[in-house]
UniProtKB/TrEMBL annotation:
Domain ABC transporter: 4-239
MF GO annotations: ATP binding
Source species of the chain: Bradyrhizobium iriomotense
Protein name: Sugar ABC transporter ATP-binding protein
UniProt xrefs under PANTHER family: MALTODEXTRIN IMPORT ATP-BINDING PROTEIN MSMX, OSMOPROTECTIVE COMPOUNDS UPTAKE ATP-BINDING PROTEIN GGTA
SUPFAM superfamilies: MOP-like (SSF50331), P-loop containing nucleoside triphosphate hydrolases (SSF52540)
Keywords of this entry: ATP-binding, Cell membrane, Membrane, Nucleotide-binding, Transport
Protein's job: Involved in beta-(1-->2)glucan export. Transmembrane domains (TMD) form a pore in the inner membrane and the ATP-binding domain (NBD) is responsible for energy generation.
Gene3D superfamilies assigned to the protein according to its UniProt record, in alphabetical order: 2.40.50.100, Nucleic acid-binding proteins, P-loop containing nucleotide triphosphate hydrolases
InterPro entries hit by this protein: AAA+_ATPase, ABC_transporter-like_ATP-bd, ABC_transporter-like_CS, ABC_transpr_FbpC, ABC_transpr_MalK/UgpC-like, Mo/tungstate-bd_C_term_dom, NA-bd_OB-fold, P-loop_NTPase
Family stated for the protein in its record: Belongs to the ABC transporter superfamily.
CDD domains linked: ABC_Carb_Solutes_like
């Protein structure tokens, strides 16, 4: 059963003299108990608005939010059993770091020794033991961020919301804290949603990733599923490094399947038996589709697509080779060193089974075999 259920939620900001901003559209999302979820998307896509509506710092324009089978969207924040760490920290300036963290526990009527034990434990976890008696104005932005994180995680709550929880920290500390926070959440079976625009962070921490764009949830799935079975062009190009190669192709029925061609230089035969009924129908009704192939699936040195090398970089454990063909740039990633210089013409192999096919509306018509 879902721990958090967001049903058909919309958020529209209206301010006088300005056009309304539709920040979140028809959002449906169910989060399981103990699940760690990342809200991933570019700036302005509606991540923070979603988090603030769940926490109660922003009203929902329409729709409903339920937590532990209780409808919460009409409740004041303090009654929701939600703990949130803010992007802007919002620490109380007149209280020390220790008092800021302990303050969150006051309502829970714990003994002084229990409060002190919990504060010390969480401070150790995020490495702020040495500043517990400092005031917020006397510590760095990165330290303030960790205090805000500690203040949220120290509480007992049904749901933890973390807005860019490690955005201010240097990469090494970030990686260490990520591991520890994941450990803490898992050990206590805590349910958490965190906002990030960092794919690595989302993959490292989350069980499932909700990809948002323009106020719309594009796909909510594991990292593997997002990579192997992207629901649409947006997810296909947003997830994965370097991004998926995308080509516009013309569609023609051929040999019981379809021939997808890019001018006269590149063509793929898609056998009919690799397509389900809906995919066959979609291809029969359209003249053009977009195809996508991951750089890791493009083989170099074999195949019949001839590319002119634009760049060839060895990154220590893999080569990134960019080549131009018929006005298109194709990127290949291979685990071996490639002896090719810019200007050389070399073959790339793009196999039909590795192609994702997207329709005019961007929705995926067929996924690559095995991802
Ligand atoms: N209080 C507000 N009043 C008016 N518009 C707002 C308000 N808060 C957010 N918006 C707008 O709503 C849209 C979504 O903003 P939101 O902060 O939810 O996005 P985000 O994905 O969290 O972005 P970021 O990663 O930059 O924080 C943006 O266009 C933003 O300008």
């Amino acid at each position: 059963m879902a721990m958090l259920e967001i049903q058909n939620v919309d958020k529209v900001y209206r301010s006088r003299g300005k056009a309304p901003v539709h920040a979140v559209r028809a959002l449906d999302m169910a989060v399981k108990k103990g699940e760690i979820v990342a809200l991933l998307g570019s700036s302005g896509c509606g991540k923070t608005s979603t988090l603030r509506m769940i926490a109660g710092f922003e009203s929902v324009t329409s729709g409903a939010i339920a937590l532990s089978q209780r409808r919460i969207d009409e409740l004041p924040p303090a009654k929701r059993k939600v703990a949130m760490a803010f992007e802007g920290y919002s620490l109380y300036p007149p209280l020390t770091v220790r008092e800021n963290i302990a303050f969150a526990l006051k309502a829970q009527q714990l003994s002084r020794s229990e409060i002190s034990r919990r504060v010390e434990a969480i401070a150790r976890l995020v490495e702020i033991e040495d500043i517990l008696d400092s005031f917020p104005r006397a510590i760095s932005g990165g330290q303030q961020q960790r205090v805000s994180l500690a203040r949220a995680l120290v509480r007992d709550a049904d749901l933890y919301l973390l807005d860019e929880p490690m955005g201010q920290l240097e990469p090494q500390l970030r990686a260490v804290l990520r591991g520890r926070i994941k450990g803490l959440l898992a050990e206590r079976g805590m349910t958490a949603i965190f906002v990030t625009h960092d794919q690595t962070e989302a993959s490292a921490l989350a069980d499932r990733i909700a990809v948002m764009e323009d106020g719309v949830l594009q796909q909510f799935a594991s990292e593997k599923e997002l990579k192997n079975r992207p629901a649409n062009l947006f997810v296909a190009s947003f997830i994965g490094e370097p991004p998926m190669n995308l080509l516009e192709t013309e569609v023609a029925a051929a040999d019981g399947g379809f021939r997808l061609s890019v001018g006269s230089d590149i063509a793929f035969q898609i056998p009919g038996d690799t397509l389900d009924h809906a995919a066959r129908q979609a291809l029969a009704q359209t003249k053009r589709v977009r195809i996508g192939i991951r750089p890791q699936k493009v083989a170099v040195g074999t195949g019949d697509v001839r590319v002119r090398v634009v760049s060839n970089q060895w990154l220590g454990d893999q080569s990134h080779v960019a080549g131009e063909c018929a006005g298109h740039l194709l990127i290949a990633v291979t685990p071996s060193r490639i002896a090719a210089r810019p200007g050389d013409v070399i073959p790339f192999a793009l196999e039909p089974r590795h192609l994702h096919i997207f329709g005019a509306d961007g929705a995926c018509i067929r996924h690559a075999e095995g991802g």
